Structures are given as C-alpha cells and as structure tokens.
Amino acid sequence: TERTYIMIKPDGVQRGLVGKIIARFEERGFKIVALKMAHPTEDHLRKHYADLANKPFFPGLVKYMASGPVIAIVFEGLDAVKTGRAMLGATNPLASPIGSIRGDFALAVGRNICHGSDSVESANKEIDLWFPEGITSWKSVYEGWLYE
Ligand code: GTP
Ligand code: MG
C-alpha cells in the first residue's frame, strides 16, 4: 500500500470543512497514519511549494497558505496518491467534477481548500517535511474487508 500527504488549507479550516474532508477519505477506506494542526511559516511553505517558486502566483500562494492553521494528514491505502488527487479534483475548482472535494466546496484556484501529493516521490518528500517526528503504523480491523 501507498501513502499520500493531504493538507486542509487555511480556507478549508476557516470554513469548517475539516470533518467533511477527513470523512471522505475515511469512508473511502484510507487509513490515517499521521494527523496534526500546524500554523506553517512562509519559509516552510516555500520548501513545500519549491517547484512553483518561479510562478507569478507564488508569493500570493505562500501568503495564503501561511494565513492560518492547516491540517496536515498522511493517509495510507491502495493507490493513495492517484486516488487522493482524484478525490480532491482539479487544481481549478471550477474544472473539478461535482462529487470531488474542490468541485463540491470551492470556486477559486487560489482558494482551493486542500492539497494532495502529485506523485509517490513528492508524497515521501512532503511526509518528511511535515512530519519529521515520524508517522504511525497500525493495523485496522477493516483491512480484511477492504482488500482481497
Ligand atoms: P496542490 O495540491 O495545492 O499542490 O495543488 P495542485 O497540485 O492541484 O496544483 P499546483 O501544485 O500546480 O499548484 C499549487 C497551488 O497553487 C494550487 O493548489 C493553487 O492553490 C495555487 N495555484 C496554482 N495555479 C494557480 C494560478 O494559476 N493562480 C493562482 N492564484 N493560484 C494557483
Ligand atoms: Mg501540487
């Protein structure tokens, strides 16, 4: 099984969507193996979004992401990275299918309420960046009913 880093952004926290977003992943069958609230510094966010440093929207993105606490989560399960991205929807909420998190709860690309790792390699980097203390490992009693 695979792990992905999912983050509820400051607007998702402010809008009271934490429970709904986590519930979708739990209901799908993904297992929480790390979770915390954190108020990231701009410096930390510049590391998280280092690949986007040359984009015109980068300074605004860093300010938005540092504007309040976020919920940092690691979910584990089958094909977690790709499935997690599909559950979030497209980067632009208006292009996200109804039924996806951004398609149901957001409108603007610069306020798209959640983040998801875009590859297994990014997931590993992001998990190390956000959880340097390490993550947990536990066996769910549902596993025999989720997986054949
Ligand atoms: P993340 O899961 O947050 O990484 O989003 P993503 O992988 O769907 O998109 P990407 O990594 O390319 O961009 C990171 C974030 O930057 C997006 O989620 C948006 O919040 C923001 N962003 C991306 N493109 C634009 C843009 O054209 N304008 C603005 N204002 N923000 C953008
Ligand atoms: Mg991205």
From TrEMBL:
This protein's UniProt keywords: ATP-binding, Kinase, Nucleotide-binding, Transferase
InterPro entries hit by this protein: NDK-like_dom, NDK-like_dom_sf, Nucleoside_diP_kinase, Nucleoside_diP_kinase_AS
Positions that bind ATP: K9, F57, R85, T91, R102, N112
Name of the top EC class for this enzyme: transferase
Pfam families recorded: NDK
UniProt EC number: 2.7.4.6
Domain Nucleoside diphosphate kinase-like: 1-137
Coiled coil: none
Entry-linked PANTHER family: NUCLEOSIDE DIPHOSPHATE KINASE (PTHR11349)
Name of the featured protein: Nucleoside diphosphate kinase
Species, as recorded: Agaricus bisporus var. burnettii (strain JB137-S8 / ATCC MYA-4627 / FGSC 10392) (White button mushroom)
Upper classification of the organism: Eukaryota, Fungi, Dikarya, Basidiomycota, Agaricomycotina
